[in-house]
Design goal:
The protein has 507 residues and is mainly α. It contains 20 helices and 2 strands. Helix 2 runs antiparallel to helix 3 and helix 14 packs antiparallel against helix 16.
């Protein structure tokens, strides 16, 4: 779809990049002064609803006219901070903003149940700060500015998790705080080393000056140290196996809305940063040709795909089960990065979008179950499919996508990953892709069996469907997992353009 077809070709988009960050940031300030949760939700909802229009307009503009550069305060880069929107960042901005808008429809009833009324306005404030931080990370072209936004989103995330009524939320938030702080510290140390070598913080300028450093010789050890610190720091944020130990508790004990939003966005933004540094800053020539990073990522990805899936099979708490599933799905994305070819990278990038919508749908379904049962333990969900058929129908559709059934977005991602493996002469990797996908049948199948083929027990006997405000967004996401699994021209085309863009930035 073109800009002209949507009537966007005459719109001045000069300030769209800064608006995308400032709208949720100023909305957070307003929410912080409110006492009533419903008013805070209304402000957060309106702010979130405006963002997809900005993001989609920029995506269409970039796909037709090339990158957008916005100099903050009129200071031209690389002296000033630059916001830069290219096809990859526009794709991720679209994903974050759409997830935020859809999730906010779902949020009102869920937050009312799981957050004390006196804390609801503060919870929405933290959500908006997190949203602003994630968008800022994606849109900035400044390495230190990315760190600032990383900390804004992280601190807001810790608070969102800790605001839950379950006391275990505090432990989960503290574990996440410790691991997140270590990751952020390593990242900023790596950025500091790059600044000492290049004298700049602008990512494009760093890339150009690193090329000169390698041409003239010297600084190799410093650059490798920076790469190692940034890679490990961001891997902690991504929850790449085995640096994932913070994630299961964070997802399992956080309020349902927080889990929905974070599972669909937070790790995806960290992966975006990895893509940006690997391909645009350090360059494929260094990262994948001169160093064994491809092999390291490949091994860790396979370990995540199988290790996390095995652990998920034996979980009794279904949110915890899906948390380990997320670790495995991150493995598929990093697998595509490790292949470093057109098809593999396309598969990894499109899985950013695909995993976001199917995992958001799964966690929304579980949030609806918790709304009625106050539990997501598998034994308490016996027969729940008979009394909440639409909710569990969403779970089944999104679960089939996790498995990779044809006709769903999960199959689409794995198809391109398999093609990328064949292109690299790694036919054995396709077997592992299929095997790990089949293993996920066991944990999805456990829930389906209990929910649909057992008689209702306990509170499930009298359970009802969730409110329409919770049901509608999860049904939309379930339909999206099928629609984008069949109509592939949109998401795959954007992911393919992004892969071509990254692979073209080879030093």
């Amino acid at each position: 779809m073109s800009m002209g077809a949507l009537g966007l070709d005459n719109i001045d988009m000069t300030h769209f990049p800064i608006l995308l960050v400032m709208v949720p940031l100023f909305a957070a300030v307003f929410c912080a002064f409110l006492q009533r949760g419903i008013l805070a939700w209304a402000i957060a909802f309106l702010a979130s609803l405006a963002l997809p229009f900005l993001a989609i307009a920029m995506l269409l503009h970039v796909s037709e006219n090339g990158p957008i550069s916005y100099a903050l305060g009129g200071w031209a880069p690389p002296i000033g901070i630059e916001y830069r929107v290219d096809i990859l960042s526009a794709f991720v901005l679209m994903l974050i903003s759409i997830v935020g808008a859809v999730s906010m429809i779902y949020a009102r009833k869920s937050v009312e149940k799981e957050i004390d009324s006196s804390r609801q306005a503060w919870f929405y404030t933290m959500y908006l700060l997190c949203l602003s931080g994630l968008l800022g990370i994606t849109i900035t072209n400044d390495a230190f500015n990315a760190f600032v936004f990383l900390e804004v989103s992280s601190l807001a995330t810790y608070t969102m998790i800790a605001l839950g009524k379950d006391r275990r939320c505090l432990v989960a938030a503290y574990q996440y705080l410790i691991m997140g702080t270590i990751g952020a510290t390593l990242y900023v140390l790596g950025v500091g080393i790059l600044y000492s070598v290049t004298g700049t913080l602008n990512l494009s300028d760093i890339a150009a000056r690193l090329g000169e450093a390698f041409t003239t010789g010297g600084f190799e050890r410093s650059i490798l140290a920076a790469l190692a610190m940034i890679m490990v720091g961001l891997s902690l944020k991504v929850a790449l196996f085995p640096l994932h130990l913070w994630l299961p508790n964070a997802y399992a004990y956080a309020p349902s809305f927080a889990t929905v939003f974070l599972a669909a966005t937070a790790t995806k933004v960290a992966i975006y940063l990895i893509l940006r540094f690997f391909f645009s800053v350090f360059g494929k020539g260094l990262v994948f040709a001169d160093l064994p990073i491809s092999e390291i990522l490949l091994v860790l990805s396979i370990a995540a795909m199988f290790g996390a899936t095995f652990v998920a099979i034996f979980q009794q708490n279904i949110k915890r089960m899906l948390a380990y599933s997320s670790v495995a799905q991150v493995g598929y994305i990093t697998l595509g990065i490790s292949l470093a070819n057109q098809a593999g990278l396309t598969g990894g990038i499109v899985h950013l979008f695909n995993h976001a919508i199917m995992k958001a749908a799964l966690f929304m379904a579980l949030g609806a179950v918790f709304y009625r049962l106050s539990s997501v333990k598998i034994d308490d969900m016996a027969g729940i499919g008979r009394v909440m058929p639409l909710t569990m129908g969403v779970f089944v559709i999104a679960g089939l996508s996790i498995v990779g059934v044809p006709g769903t977005v999960g199959f689409l991602s794995k198809f391109y990953l398999a093609q990328g493996a064949f292109d690299n002469g790694m036919g054995w990797l396709v077997f592992l892709l299929v095997a790990s996908s089949l293993l996920s049948i066991f944990y999805i199948g456990r829930v389906v069996e209990v929910a649909w083929f057992k008689a209702p027990v306990g509170t499930a006997v009298s359970a009802q469907s969730p409110p329409a405000s919770m049901l509608v967004p999860m049904v939309l996401l379930a339909l999206a997992t099928v629609y984008f699994g069949i109509e592939t021209s949109g998401t795959v085309s954007m992911a393919s353009q992004a892969a071509t863009f990254l692979l073209g930035e080879v030093k």
